[in-house]
Amino acid sequence: MDKIRIVGGIPLYGTVNISGAKNAVLPLMCASLLTDKSVVLTNVPLLSDVTYMNSILGGLGTEVFNGSDIINGNVCKRYTYKTTDILSTTVPYDLVRKMRASYYVLGPLLARKGEAKFSLPGGCTIGVRPIDIHLSALEQMGANIKIQNGYIIGKAQKGLKGANLNFPSPSVGATCNVMMAATLAKGKTVINNAAREPEISDLAKMLNSMGAKISGAGTSVVKIDGVNDLGGTIHNVISDRIEAGSYAIAAAVTNGRLELINAEYDTLVKPIDILRKCGVSVEIANNSLIVDATNQEITAHNIITAGYPGFPTDLQAQFMAMLTLANGVSEITETIFENRFMHVPELIRMGAKISVKDKNSVIVNGVKNLSGASVMASDLRASFALVLAGLAADGETEINRVYHLDRGYETVEKKLQQIGANIQRIKEK
Ligand code: EPZ
C-alpha cells in the first residue's frame, strides 16, 4: 500500500485547479443507464471511485469510451457512456464492497430494466450507512424488494409508478437514486424532505437535458413527472466543493495564499463564512476563490455539521485539523455520521489537544505547533485532514493507507507539489 511523506512548515503559494466533483460524477455516470443514447460527461475527475464505477457500468453492458479536453491548460477527462441494452442487472459484492456509491445503479436499473440484484453495501469506517430510505421509496414506487443471502433483489416488471414520498431524513443518495428512478416512472413523484446538496441539482440539470421533467432540485421538495424515455446529452460535471474547501484549509494551516480555480463560492457559503470568522481572508474572483492566510493567526470557532446548506460533514475532519492550531477552544459536533472522528487519535499523535465531549462532539484546544509522526489514514476525508496536519507540522509525517485519498482527491501530491509542498508518494511493492 502506498504511503505519503510530507515535510511540513512550508507556506503554500500558487494556484490549484479544482476538479469535477466526486459526489456529482458518480450519480451522473449511473444516470447514463436510463437511456440507450450516448451520455458524454466532461470535467470528470481522475479518481479511483470513477474507475470502480466504470467497471460496474461495464459489467452491466455500458460501453465506456474516454478521451480528454484541455481546459485552462489542464487535461480534463471526457467519458462517453452508451448502454444500448442492459446485459446484466447484477452488481456483485466484490464491487459493491469497494464502493458504497454503487447503490446509484439501483434506481436506474429498476426504471430501465425492471430488475436489479445488488449486494447489500457493508458499512464503512464512518458509520453503518444503511440504505433503508432508498429501498422504502422504491417499494412505494411499486418495486418488489427482497433481501436474500446479502443481496437486494428488486423487481418492477410492470415498471415503476409515481409516489408521494416523505423521507425521514434528507438522504443525498436516496434523493439521487429516487430522482433517477422517477424520471421513467408512470406519473408524478414528489420527494418531501429531499436533500439539497449542489450535486443533486447538477444531476437534475443533466437529467432534464436528457428530457426528464424535474423541478425543485436543490430545495427540500423535488417533483418529477415521469416520461416514456430519455435521450442523450453532454454535461460538464460541477466542480468539487469539498476538494476546494480542503485546499482552502491547506492555505490556512500553512499561512499561505492559494487561488482555487473553478471553485464555486455559491456551493461553499457556510465553510467560507467560518474560515473568515477564523481570520482567513477569502476573496471571490471571476472563476476562482483567493484564500489568504499569510501572517494570520487562526482563531477558534465552533462547528456543527448539517445537511446542505449547513456546514458539510465532508469538511469536518479538515476543519478540525486547522482548529488544532487555532488560538482558543473549539467544539466540533458531527450530526450526520455516527463515527466520523477516526482522525482524532491520529491528530493527537501529532500533538493536537482534543478531548471527547460526548458521542458526537469533541473539544479542540489549539496548540502552537504540531509535530510530524507516522499516522494511519482511515477514510477519505480523514486522510486529507492528516495531509493538512502534516503540511503544518514541524518535521516529517508519513501517512499510511493513502488509497483512501485517491478515492476523492485527483493527483493530490502533484497538486500540492505545484504549490510548494514537500510531499512524495512512496510506492509500496
Ligand atoms: C453522500 O453519502 C456522500 N457520498 C457522502 O460523501 C456525504 O458525506 C453524504 O452524502 C452526506 O452529505 C456520495 O455522494 C457518494 P446520506 P450518502 O444518504 O448518500 C443515513 C465523502 O467523503 N441514511 O445523505 O451515503 C446515513 O447513515 C462521502 O465524499 C440512512 O439512515 O449520505 C447517514 O447517517 C462520505 N438511511 C445520513 O443518513 C438511508 O437509506 C446521511 O446519509 C440513507 C442514509
Task: Tell me what you see in this structure.
- The structure is a single chain.
- The protein has 429 residues and is an alpha/beta fold.
- The protein has two domains: 204 residues, Enolpyruvate transferase domain (UDP-n-acetylglucosamine1-carboxyvinyl-transferase, Chain); 215 residues, UDP-n-acetylglucosamine1-carboxyvinyl-transferase, Chain (Alpha-beta prism).
- Helices cover 30% and strands 27% of the residues.
- It is built from 14 helices and 24 strands.
- The strands form six sheets. A four-stranded mixed β-sheet has the order 22-23-1-24. The chain has a four-stranded mixed β-sheet with strand order 2-15-17-16, covered by helices on one side. The chain has a four-stranded mixed β-sheet with strand order 4-5-3-14.
- Helix 12 links the parallel strand 22 and strand 23.
- Helix 4 packs parallel to helix 6 and helix 8 runs parallel beside helix 12.
- The radius of gyration is 21 Å and the shape is globular.
- The relative contact order is 0.16.
- Bound molecules: ligand EPZ.
- The site of ligand EPZ has 24 residues, from helix 1, helix 5, helix 6 and helix 12.
